[in-house]
Design brief:
Elements (H helix, E strand, L loop, with lengths): L6 H22 L15 H15 L4 E5 L11 H5 L5 E6 L2 E7 L7 E5 L2 E2 L7 H6 L16 E5 L13 E6 L10 E12 L4 E13 L5 E20 L9 E3 L27 E3 L3 E20 L5 E13 L2 E8 L1 H6 L23 E11 L5 E11 L7 E12 L2 E14 L4 E28 L1 E5 L8 E5 L16 E30 L2 E20 L17 E3 L19 E3 L1 H11 L15 E18 L2 E22 L22 E2 L21 E25 L2 E12 L4 H4 L3 E6 L2 E5 L8 E12 L6 E28 L6 E26 L5 E14 L11 E10 L3 E10 L2 E2 L14 E4 L2 E4 L4 E2 L2 E13 L2 E8 L6 E4 L6 E6 L3 E9 L1
Parallel strand pairs: 4-7, 33-36
Antiparallel strand pairs: 1-6, 2-3, 4-5, 6-7, 8-9, 8-48, 9-10, 10-13, 10-47, 11-12, 13-14, 13-15, 14-19, 15-18, 16-17, 17-21, 18-20, 19-20, 20-23, 21-22, 23-24, 24-27, 25-26, 27-28, 28-30, 29-30, 30-31, 31-34, 32-33, 34-35, 35-36, 36-37, 37-38, 38-39, 39-44, 40-43, 41-42, 43-46, 44-45, 45-48, ...
């Protein structure tokens, strides 16, 4: 797909706007008697839309609103699904589920998501996200049926919790006394079928609401148990270093590329220098489950009109064990004459009768690409990478199975919200909350087998087509030990580790509102907020019995990949899409047989830990204004952030002595706080002599910093006429940096002629701030109808730039001469960034037909001072939906579009080079990020009222089985291609 193919959906929205504008003109000519229908109570889609537009219209700030009058009328399975329908909102999708929410062209770390006015600690189910330590909130734990209302604040105001650089989303849950009946509830029984894994599971939730006859006390209890099976088929450039991703041809190290090997092509070896080459032609096959269980309760006490108290509790837990398989090529290692990237063969030269052998390039096809940065590069689009004729099988790639047992995410909160009207002028409010989130993987365990062969052919096609790939001289694509002919597989690698991250926060809000009614000044609001946030990450690597891989190696449990692998990837006829794997049971048996029980302390990797505390305090004052058609607010919020991080510092080699498991701790001379009782990857094996001086040693040092920010805000709302509103907003917002930028440890100290460097955090990095301006116009021209235009601009200060040496320094001992020296830390620095854009929305029912549609499109232009793209930022986002509803039946079809964006982790490590520079063909240019290509998804919902209380519904998500493509410098450099399949839900809902 070309970069210009992002326009069709925007064009479709524009055409829809013009068409329905004509229909609106006709509707305005209809008889006024239609106003009688406005007092008829409607439910479902129409009620939800009417209530959402009412809240949006009357708000002082520029907001978007979701009101779930009947969530079953939308094809949304978690809150992120629902939020992505809103103007200017985009989501990051993992596998087949939306998880993290971004606003106005920024990344998810810039969006603050709160529940009932307070932060919610979250957890990630996938181990890479668990390790990233970002501030973005995963909504995969939040089913859409817990929603009462979600307000997306695009402009800030002083009484909103700070932390949302791009915006804040406040999700509220239902209150018992707001329900109409004394006793009511919903029981939903259903199932979900995922077509790629080909499995059906349950989808159950229920809630009951009771309140007393006096309407002074009520309780809501809700529970959910929802399980889905997932599968993802992929082709990618992933492999083990140095074969991962893309590189360039270098005939100085790839000595098999000669003028003779290229005979007949018209090319010389020197012509290939600097040509971009894929590292591998890999296939990935992942299966897993999402087993989400939890519930919510709310108890409300309102003895009189002056006092209102509500306690709400929520808990959600999702088990997500997942099993990945990989069949990875090794093109670059073949060309460099090297063996496996890991294990006993790591980096060793290939050898035939004691002589190193290099693969050659035959039949090269080279194209010229224009990179996203404007440079021209050459790309090897297809070639045969083969060893010289007669060469016995050599290293050609790896086959791997990795089972992540006990993958789990949890989130819970408890809050107490109280409101008391002291007198007719003064109202005070209090909110106390405690929340805890956890993400963990009990054991990420895998085995890697080296594969031998004589060559590979590949041909890259379009961005959204699987490449042609064929292997030669490998023997069958099924496990067999390497034999005399050189073909087969050898166990060369293993990995076993766990991860556990815990996120906690306690907070207290105290607010007061005093009515004045003095001219334009109607009331004053003021308040304070205090919170204490703690974040920890612990990694443990189980002690294995043997350093040698062979003992207890599996002799069974080898199975082929499914025969339908890659059917949705549109691979060419005859491509090699077969492989084998090892079952989870065989993997677990290997590690159980080889594991030695020591202690949780011994298994720690102290140098990888995060242990930090953050205290936030804020006070604000805000004046609410109203005069004739003008209203709004002006306020000031003062915020103080105190960060206290225990950072692991390395100790020079040879000073400390490590104690073995179960033995007394050995003090370290000169470092009384040294952590000498953890293995740090060295191990205590039965088949190796224990070296107490080997490996890395760390001690933890406290780093304290505090920051104060002044956040002014102004929101003005003016009624041009009763149904036409314009708004103007100015504000300064704050976004705190991801935890891993200031709380990870130091590692990899090196010194050379240019000086000394070390990888680590930047404890001096300050929060980001953004000065924002917003101008909007909205016309509510008919019931459930809207046309709106928003213009906005944000100037960001303190945007992180990773991979920079010299932004921070530490004093450390040079490992060469044991002298104390100043080390430049390869870490994060800060820079400026800009975001500006426009948002258009149009929604309207079509006459009295029961039909209607919703549409929105937004464009965000981002600019970072260093000229590199902003991580996670999409320029375009759009939604187009049509619906029909009457008393018996309703249906909705929605399309969601998101343009390309940088798809690195939302929390790049401090030394990440994706924001650095590379030298290619003698030209210095930015390192290529991984870009996610534009994607459009389609979802459908239909509901039928069998009786007024019994409803049958059907939902389908990812109807087009969208392929998610990723690339590097341009679309000529395909990096990855995924499909996850469709999901179908059938539910029977009983309302009482």
């Amino acid at each position: 797909m070309s970069m210009y193919e992002k326009k069709p959906l925007a064009v479709a929205v524009s055409l829809a706007l013009m068409t329905l504008a004509a229909q609106n003109a006709l509707a305005q000519q209809a008889p006024a008697a239609d106003s009688a229908t406005q007092v008829v109570e409607v439910t479902g889609i129409r009620a939800s839309m009417a209530k959402s537009l009412s809240v949006k219209k009357n708000s002082s700030a520029n907001v978007e609103v979701i009101t779930a009058e009947d969530v079953g009328k939308m094809p949304d399975k978690n809150l992120a699904d629902s939020l992505q329908r809103l103007t200017g909102v985009a989501v990051r999708t993992d596998y087949d589920e939306a998880e993290k929410v971004a606003m106005r062209g920024t990344n998810p770390d810039h969006t603050l998501i709160i529940f009932n006015g307070h932060a919610v600690a979250g957890g990630d189910w996938y181990i890479s996200d668990q390790l990233s330590s970002s501030r973005s909130t995963s909504l995969s734990l939040m089913p859409s049926n817990v929603l009462n209302q979600a307000i997306v604040y695009k402009t800030s105001q002083a009484n909103i919790q700070d932390g949302g650089l791009a915006g804040t989303i406040n999700v509220t849950t239902r209150k018992p006394l707001a329900q109409k009946e004394r006793l009511s509830g919903v029981v939903n029984l259903g199932g979900v079928y995922a077509d790629l894994p080909g499995k059906a599971t349950h989808d159950v939730n229920a809630s009951v609401n009771w309140k007393n006859e006096a309407n002074t006390f009520g309780i809501i209890v809700q529970g959910f148990a929802e399980k889905r099976m997932v599968r993802r088929d992929s082709v990618s450039r992933f492999a083990y270093p140095p074969n991962s991703g893309w590189d360039v041809i270098n005939t100085a190290t790839m000595k098999g590329i000669t003028d003779e090997s290229l005979a007949g092509t018209g090319l010389k070896a020197a012509d290939l220098n600097g040509v971009r080459i894929p590292g591998s032609m890999s296939m990935e096959y992942v299966q897993g489950e999402r087993d989400r269980k939890g519930g919510m309760f709310s108890a409300q006490f309102k003895p009189n009109k002056d006092l209102d108290m509500t306690m709400t509790g929520f808990h959600s837990s999702m088990k997500a064990p997942n099993y990945g398989r990989l069949n990875a090529g090794a093109i670059i290692s073949m060309l460099q004459g090297k063996q496996s990237g890991q294990g006993p063969y790591a980096g060793a030269p290939t050898s035939v009768n004691g002589k190193q052998v290099f693969a050659q390039i035959k039949n090269p096809v080279i194209v010229t690409e224009k990179t996203m940065f404007g440079h021209e590069l050459r790309v090897l689009k297809s070639a045969d990478i083969v060893y010289p004729d007669g060469t016995p099988p050599q290293y050609i790639g790896e086959t791997e199975g990795a089972y992540r047992d006990g993958a789990l995410a949890k989130s819970s909160f408890l809050d107490l919200d109280a409101k008391y009207r002291v007198n007719q002028d003064l109202t005070i409010k209090g909110l106390f909350s405690t929340t805890r989130g956890e993400g963990k993987t009990d054991l990420d365990q895998g085995l890697t087998y080296t594969r031998f062969g004589t060559g590979v052919s590949y041909a890259l096609g379009g961005l959204k087509d699987a490449p042609m790939v064929k292997y030669y001289g490998t023997g069958p694509n099924m496990y067999k030990p390497q034999g005399a002919d050189g073909t087969g597989f050898v166990l060369t690698g293993r990995n076993a580790a766990n991860a556990r991250t815990v996120d906690r926060e306690n907070s207290l809000n105290l607010d007061a509102e005093y009515s004045l009614d003095r001219g334009m000044l109607k009331s004053l609001e003021s308040g304070v907020r205090f919170s204490e946030h703690k974040r920890s990450l612990v990694r443990r690597f189980p002690q294995l019995r043997y350093a040698d891989l062979a003992p207890n190696a599996p002799t069974s449990g080898f199975i082929p990949w499914p025969s339908d692998f890659g059917n949705g990837l549109d691979g060419p006829a005859g491509w090699d899409n077969t492989s084998w794997t090892i079952t989870p049971e065989a993997l677990k048996a290997y590690y159980e047989a080889n594991r030695t029980v020591t202690s949780s302390d011994w298994e720690r990797r102290a140098g990888l830990e995060i242990d930090m505390r953050e205290r936030q305090s804020a006070g604000y004052i805000m004046a609410n204004l109203e005069a004739d058609r003008l209203s709004g607010n002006i306020g000031l919020r003062l915020v103080r952030t105190e960060v206290d991080a225990m950072i692991p510092y390395p100790i020079p080699a040879g000073i400390c002595t490590r104690s073995r498991p179960g033995e007394p701790i050995i003090p370290c001379p000169g470092y009384p706080d040294a952590i000498t009782w953890v293995h740090e990857g060295t191990g205590s094996f039965q088949d190796r002599t224990f070296n107490p001086k080997a490996g890395s040693f760390f001690y933890k040092k406290e780093n304290k910093h505090h920051y104060t920010n002044v956040l002014p805000s102004l929101n003005l709302r003016y009624e041009l006429q009763d149904d036409m509103i314009t708004r103007f907003g100015l504000s300064r917002t704050i976004g705190r940096q991801n935890y891993n930028l200031f709380a990870v440890g130091y590692s990899s100290a090196t010194c050379g002629e240019a000086g000394c460097t070390i990888i680590g955090p930047n404890p001096n990095i300050s929060p980001q701030t953004s000065n924002n301006a917003d101008l909007s116009w909205a016309w509510y021209f008919a019931p459930r109808s809207l046309v709106s235009v928003n213009l906005y601009y944000s100037k960001i200060k303190g945007y992180p730039k990773t991979g920079i040496a010299g932004a921070a320094t530490i004093e450390y001992i040079d490992p060469r001469d044991s002298q104390l020296k100043t080390f430049n830390v390869l870490t994060s620095s800060q820079q400026g960034a800009h975001v500006g854009g426009i948002e258009l929305a149009y929604e309207q029912p079509i006459g009295k037909t029961g039909f209607g549609f919703t549409s929105n499109v937004s464009r965000a232009k981002t600019k970072v001072d260093d000229g590199l793209p902003m991580v996670g930022a999409s320029e375009w986002a759009a939604n187009l939906g049509g619906y029909f509803e009457n008393d018996k039946f309703s249906a909705r079809l929605v399309a969601n579009y998101r343009s390309e964006y940088v798809n690195s982790s939302t929390a790049p490590t401090p030394n990440a080079a994706s924001q650095g520079k590379a030298v290619i063909n003698g030209v210095t240019m930015p390192v290529a990020p991984t870009m996610a290509a534009p994607v459009t998804t389609l979802a459908f919902n239909a509901s039928y009222n069998i009786t007024p209380t019994l409803i049958l519904s059907f939902d389908a998500t990812n109807l087009t089985n969208a392929k998610r493509a990723y690339y590097r410098y341009s679309e000529e450099e395909q990096q990855k291609l995924d499909v996850s399949g469709r999901q179908y839900y059938l539910n029977l809902k009983y309302k009482f």
